[in-house]
Predict the 3D structure of the following.
Amino acid sequence: MATPEKAHLVVIGNGMAGARAVEEILERGGDTQFRITMFGDEPYGNYNRIMLSHVLAGDDAVRDSNLEEIYLNPLDWYEDNDITLHAGVRVVRVDRFSKKVYGNDGTIEPYDKLIIATGSRTFYPPMDGMWVDDKTLTPGVFGFRTLDDTTAMLDYASGSDSGRRTAAVIGGGLLGLEAAYGLLQHGHDVHVIQSGPILMNQQLDEEAGAILRKVIERMGMTVHTGKRTTAIRAHGGGVSAVVFKDGSAIDCDMVVLTAGIRPNVGLGVVSGLTVERAIVTDDQMRSVDDPDIYAVGECGQHHGEVYGLVAPLWEQAAVLADHITGVNPKAAYHGSRIATKLKVAGVDVAAMGVKGPEKPDDEFVRFAEPKRGIYKSVVIRDGKLIGAMLLGDVKKVAFLTQSFDRGLPLPEERVEMLFELAGPSEEQGAAEMDDAVQVCNCNGVSKGDLVACVRGGEHTVSGCMAATRAGKGCGACKPLVKDIVEWAVTEGGGELGVDESADWYVPAIPMDKPTLIAAIKEQNLRSVSSVLAALAPEGEDAGSKMPLTSLLRVVWNGEFVNENDAKFINDRVHANIQRDGTFSVVPQIKGGVTDSAQLRRIADVADKYDVPMIKITGGQRIDLLGVRKEDLPDVWADLDMPSGYAYGKSFRTVKTCVGTDFCRFGLGDSTDLGIKLEQRYQGLESPAKMKLAVAGCPRNCSEALVKDVGVVAVGEDRWDLLVGGAAGASVRRGDVLATVDGHDEVVRLAGVFMQYYRENAKWLERTYDFVPRVGLDELKAILVDDRDGLVAGLEERIQASIDAYRDPWHDGREPSGPGQFADNLPLVPLPIVPVRRAPDGSLQASSAGRGPAASGPFASGNGTVEEQQKAGAQA
């Protein structure tokens, strides 16, 4: 008997709500009932919006453009589940009578069941000067809702060398404070502007809001409350100020709008669905107008409520999946009790229920310690907890959440609810906590989910986090997740497993870096493809290609096999890709010292190729921005200057002051020493970028104290050599490795340190993480005292790398393949329809009938979809 044809389920929205609904459907066997097609307005896979604040702040998990952590479902998840994904395609209309959806690229898909999960968008309040035209914001004005918003803000913030130093964040809620905190990490002066009197007024009362304000101001932000912004001034093509209703103004270079969100309901309106604040649904999350259309997440309205938090979204998705699959046709959503635990701008906040007493007999207990930034309160009615608020100290959140959700009996001494005098302590919490208590609000993970994961055989904390996604959102629950996993493993009579993968150099090969290097040498593996074929149990892996390319260059110097598809676009074309798909060209100017002939040559090239921007960089170089891909070989030829390596994971530049040449304070010739360092070590491959500087005296004008390798004159030709400094999103003063005499000894010891770092650091591990991990005393013993007899070998190997160096702008003028310098398409990939496995095992996307193939950082005619997806986020 023929197998009945599956019904077609179409999901509009590939965000957290849409993807979660599909996951829940698949868990209930929906793959046997439905053929699934998804549309995503953004050209990416499903990612965690909660992590965008971490991206903006430059947190460790997403440092150096490693954005893999924010993705919830990689592209192979869609293929593995036989889901057709239209990425970057916006649905513009639903014809309910013919049961078809229409995409803005011409795609038409019929459906049997339809889920609308279009989420929400930034609310742009009416302000003069905000818009250039109906669709274009004034340069320097940003929303903060999507990955594109975040990367645009980062690009703009990185232009601070040109004078952009002040940001105005309009909106003092959760998003506003997160945006403000992120920009603060990039060295901006930040003004937080709140129209009401209280920060985070949705979660906090007046007293807690005042304490939070003091905490925020101590961080260095300026807070303005009771200020309504009415206009944005622009000057010279960008933002210059924000203006308030009272006529006052704040000068600024950047404006971030976080004054609220609005449900994306335009599709519901044009499709004839009932829309109030959002698409109106019944208890099964169906539209009240059409039993075959569901709405879930922020675009849905249930009993008058529209929820903007993740936990209700998970509950809605579970009910929808129960109903649509028939697992439980009577499943019903009855609203959510909101309990949130967040880390806002580095401050722990938890809130649930009402903020304060609402009836005469309500009990209200609170504790405040403003100097420490701590506030706690509980509201009790008829012996039940109906509200709680914690700021700065959230140790009791598990107990309070359990009491709020489950209506548990409360201690007679109510103040005990705020301190470690009642309920389970932090250590006891894992054992005493009910299985139903939600541990990770970001991803809807309960204690029971974690315990089940452990009972299923996973005995490592990282494994449980990966399997359940607990701790993969804001990260505030990670300590509790660790406690629960450790307790569950011990309770089951097992031993906590060691996460061996934490020491692997690349995800695909179960070896640490020394073992991997030894295997590469022993088997004479000289290409990325051969390494993966020989050593990776699962074969090709996109996330391993770039670090392996770098490692092979270190191991084999000039004798490795170059494979373009294993390199990021920047390394393929030797220039830095920009947001619009053009490139940045930075020629080498050793030590920041140039002459009139170089300047004329750069000016002539800029005129000849219509370069839209010429910028002096923070590293004392000249950057030509906006160069077209096809012009790159001619630009290099006309410049006839070496590469400045502003794009690679490599030795970058040596910044110098004028030293003894002109400065009356100079103790050492920093300019000459900086040039010697740059000439010797230019372009050397490394696990992460290396920035250097030389200062002619301790006044540190060249910022040598905060570089990966810094050199500071402390006497006549006597120098402190510092390592492990940082001055980006993280700020760290370098450690003094040694004090030496003479230029030659500085150059030698700097090279010894850099080679040891090249051979022993993890991929993308900057020196400011590497040095503390190894330990300064250990580095001194190995590199200065030569305790282990390694120095001669390090000197020999770095000399071999120097001898093998070839300037890529000279050797790379002739294309290595037909696509290397082909006209570059926009960076944003085109729709992926659908994802398929190619004969060689790589994932690829068919573009038939959809226009040109996807372009992006790995797209040169031979990049896989995984590579394009990951690199698209990295760019």
